[in-house]
Design brief:
The protein is an alpha/beta fold. Helix content is about 40%, strand content about 25%. The chain has nine helices and ten strands. The strands form two sheets. Strands 6-7-8-3-9-10 form a six-stranded mixed β-sheet, sandwiched between helices. The longest helix has 16 residues, at about 170-185. It is globular and about 55 Å long. It is a peripheral membrane protein.
Length: about 240
Amino acid sequence: MEPLVVLDSVNKHFGELHVLKDISTTVAKGEVVVVIGPSGSGKSTLCRAINRLETIDSGTITIDGKRLPEEGSGLAKLRADVGMVFQAFNLFAHKTVLDNVTLGPMKVRKLGKAEARKRAMELLDRVGVANQAQKMPAQLSGGQQQRVAIARALAMDPKVMLLDEPTSALDPEMINEVLDVMVGLAKDGMTMVVVTHEMGFARKAANRVLFMDQGMIVEEATPEQFFTAPKSDRAKDFLSKILTH
């Protein structure tokens, strides 16, 4: 499989704290990689480093053969190829749902208004909120807002989607509606890196699980291997805590 995202010996410190320790891993085109691990293990930092929301101290990150630039227009261009969905939905509060989804493609991709709107409506339909297109984000439930955020990221036609704990701010009954959209994207062959506590999603949609602890990738395996026969004591301990609930 062709590599799309390559991390090579990536290190990151926050002051004294070494949050990413020599991380090397590859995400292939069309692969869904789920990153799990205890709080403070470096999962979100890893996710945010892939589109340079966090700078790194050493090592390299390449996306589709291009090394992540430090800053400037090259970075903005590369970022347009990397869709990002956060815990907080980060929608523009003063714009309608439809405008939220058309803004990026018109500004960055230079899409015409009619085409951008047509594409936005298709995507809103795909995530199940087309009937909310004229509303403001505050009028939507958290689950609906997060689905709009996913549509907004998809509207840029990204090569890879990064999702950083996309369901952790949601009420339990809204989690599945967002996970269903993510499972659909996985089935459609979207390359995804997902930081999540949702083990059901990892089992159902991931090609590979990365288990992180204390800034390192402790284990990489298929979901089947990882959940039934984890190799490291650290992973066994982590799974025993979360899978018994």
